[in-house]
């Protein structure tokens, strides 16, 4: 779930006009035909044209869908069938664990990719997350979603809470201080502190070294004390009336931004556009973003470019994927569509560091999120059904508690659901 979820149209586009004229299967055509499948907004449209201009022997066909789910459903279907995949396939982090269990169906990019696409190009945790358990590099990292916190300055002020850049740091220093401020806010205003318990829980959960699975792919939901602790903390906040009880990305959730239904929301880099679009021009300047995130930092979102073994031109496909994920190109993608780069040099680029956001009071959001990205020590290991457990098990269980189910019964629902999903 990222800014890409806002894209709704499903489009299939031929980037090169010559591809339409010749056709990828034209035996008389001596050019190398590559295809790339993405979803949402990677910011690659102009880059693919540039690549073809610089490589006249290459013709690229781009397939793009609006949302991640249908893209990955098709990817897994074609993997099972053994045919039909594109030369370069994008994989979102929520589906990466499932792809890594099928590492034998993908090329090892550390072996077929260009020499300059080494591990020092990326933040270490981003690079490492793209490797299978046996060390095979499945994907080149594209973007990331370093975490910050967005808040309504006017609503905090009305509750008598600090709302200036320095004052809010104490409120967001830890989860304990965050929920304490939320309890005060709810008591003083009768309104919700945050939008939905699921996003808060996910942010907390992703900060732990061990998540739903250990590195042996053993489900540890019932035995990992951090998961139960997060559950107890978030459900207590629900009981304290801190949650607006909204379903993420629902119509009601989107409307809540305009009406001031909540005062804070977890803000990975891609969320800024979501906040602005849903809040509308009337709320410009009321939202702010702070680099003070409870218990440090974290990441939510990001993707990889892979090269399936089905590709007839794996080295050429790897070269394209490496070029697209080079710092210079990722900065261009960031400027074009906003995906936040994961490359070390890109995080130092003036084009990123000097980027400001007028909607959020002119703060240098590029520099802010670049610093947040550096706070992530390593990516949490994701087991085979990690994404399903997050979205289809814990989210419904938390929502059930928000609708009146007891905390204990909700926890049993989550544990049983996770065990079923993991079978």
From TrEMBL:
Does the keyword Signal feature in the UniProt annotation? yes
Put simply, this protein is called: Cellobiose transport system substrate-binding protein
Q: Which residues form a coiled coil?
A: none
What species is this protein from?
A: Kutzneria buriramensis
Signal sequence residues = 1-21
- In terms of domain of life, where is this protein from? Bacteria
What is one Pfam family matched by this protein? SBP_bac_1
Q: Tell me which SUPFAM superfamilies the record gives.
A: Periplasmic binding protein-like II
Q: Does the keyword 4Fe-4S apply?
A: no
Recite the UniProt keywords alphabetically.
Answer: Signal
InterPro entries, alphabetized: Bact_solute-bd_prot1 (IPR050490), SBP (IPR006059)
PANTHER family per UniProt: ARABINOSE-BINDING PROTEIN-RELATED, SUGAR BINDING SECRETED PROTEIN
